[in-house]
UniProtKB/TrEMBL annotation:
Source species: Marinobacter xiaoshiensis
Membrane protein topology class: Multi-pass membrane protein
Signal sequence annotation: none
Places the protein is found: Cell inner membrane
Pfam families tied to this protein: MFS_1_like
Chain ranges passing through the membrane: 12-30, 42-63, 75-92, 98-117, 137-159, 165-182, 194-215, 235-258, 265-285, 330-348, 360-380
Name the record gives this protein: MFS transporter
Keywords: Cell inner membrane, Cell membrane, Membrane, Transmembrane, Transmembrane helix, Transport
Length: 389
């Protein structure tokens, strides 16, 4: 498959659109929905953390199955259908512990989709993998569309209707996974014994994972309490949605020019620069939320804190883990960073908000970034050239 094939391009882009549209409906508004349901800040943090928590186990399990069987498309379909069915438990209004079980079950299958699909996309692009950003940007477009659309509707109806507003997105996900091209089974010969261990214990790989772990810890306050933080400062649902959308718009712009940046700056320079900008972003949100121009600028820095660092990290995983361990490398990246780091960040921010304020939680994110900058400056090196197949 090649990007020049228009049909394949749209088939690859379609699932990114719907997958991140669901994220766009959840991240900005789910904490507000939970707050309306009467949950405490610590309960909100725990429920939001489940979105990240299952990434610790699910991607590794599903990635291992994908590497062994080579049937990633079938596994993506299974994750989409089963995850959607479990989410329906939300409509039973099961209370805190019931909702916790629903979220754990839903996200266990939902979080299986993206790591598998990243491998499918990169292998489908083949030698055109530098065009990954142009496929992935449709995920950002889906996120923006959902954030803006849901925010607009919530200007007319109660936040209690949020689960119903997500139903069309789940339908879009299920339909899109059946539009994926069939994947040939590709049982590969086993890799040399100990090679995966040698990779994950390499000093540069350790620094890479620590950097990304701290990056996601720093995002805990953002993904869990940014909407509540904005609401406390007088912003309405539509304004909150538009501010979330602005961050993703900047991410799209970054994906479109990322190949140009890599021609003028080293990978290490891009990473350190992005970490510094991320630290500045959290400080601005913590202290200057009431100043709209400053807040707009802080949201534009999402291009650095997510866009640039994720694009570089995909290349790191592909370069360091090679063909034999690509699926497991992608799963480790998702599990150790978005999973463990994101869950820990959500919980820590919950304690900081419960004990102090949302602003203090964002200062905690800035501290995590300061530590990440030191680790990166001391230990991170450029990844090997990624494989071409």
């Amino acid at each position: 498959m090649f990007l020049g094939d228009t049909e394949i391009y749209w088939r690859l882009s379609n699932l990114y659109f719907w997958f991140f549209a669901l994220l766009g409906g959840l991240l900005p508004y789910w904490s507000l929905y939970l707050q309306e349901q009467g949950f405490s800040y610590l309960q909100i943090a725990t429920l939001m953390a489940t979105i990240q928590l299952t990434k610790i186990v699910a991607p590794s399990l599903w990635g291992h199955l994908g590497d062994r069987a080579g049937q990633r498309v079938r596994l993506v379909r299974l994750g989409a259908i089963t995850g959607s069915l479990f989410f329906a438990g939300v409509f039973l209004e099961p209370g805190f512990y019931g909702l916790l079980l629903v979220m754990l079950a839903f996200t266990f299958f939902w979080n299986a989709i993206l790591p598998l699909y990243e491998v499918i996309t990169l292998r489908s692009l083949g030698e055109h993998r530098d065009k990954y950003g142009k496929v992935r940007l449709w995920g950002s477009i889906g996120f923006i569309g959902a954030v803006a659309g849901v925010g607009l509707i919530l200007g007319w109806v109660s936040i209690q209707w949020l689960p119903w507003l997500l139903v069309p997105v789940f339908i879009g996900i299920v339909v899109s996974v059946f539009l994926l091209p069939a994947e040939q089974g590709e049982r590969k010969p086993p890799a040399p014994k100990g090679s995966l261990r040698a990779i994950v214990t390499h000093p540069a790989v350790v620094a890479f994972f620590l950097m990304n772990f701290l990056l996601q810890v720093s995002h805990g306050a953002y993904y869990t309490f940014f909407s509540i933080h904005l609401e406390q400062h007088g912003y309405g649902n539509l304004a909150i949605g538009l501010l979330w959308s602005l961050g993703v718009i900047s991410e799209i712009g970054l994906f479109l020019v990322m190949h140009q940046l890599t021609r003028h700056f080293t990978v290490r320079q891009i990473v350190i620069g992005s970490l510094v900008l991320t630290m500045i972003r959290w400080v601005l949100i913590a202290e200057l939320t009431d100043f709209l121009p400053v807040l707009l600028f802080a949201q534009l820095l999402h291009a650095a804190s997510y866009g640039a660092l994720h694009a570089v990290s995909v290349q790191y995983v592909q370069g360091f883990f090679g063909k034999h361990h690509h699926g497991q490398g992608q799963a480790l990246y998702s599990g150790l960073t978005f999973g463990a780091g994101g869950a820990l960040g959500a919980w820590l921010s919950g304690f900081l908000v419960e004990g102090f304020s949302t602003s203090v939680a964002f200062w905690g994110g800035a501290v995590a970034m300061a530590i990440a900058i030191v680790i990166t400056a001391r230990g991170l090196s450029a990844p090997p050239e990624p494989y071409s197949g």
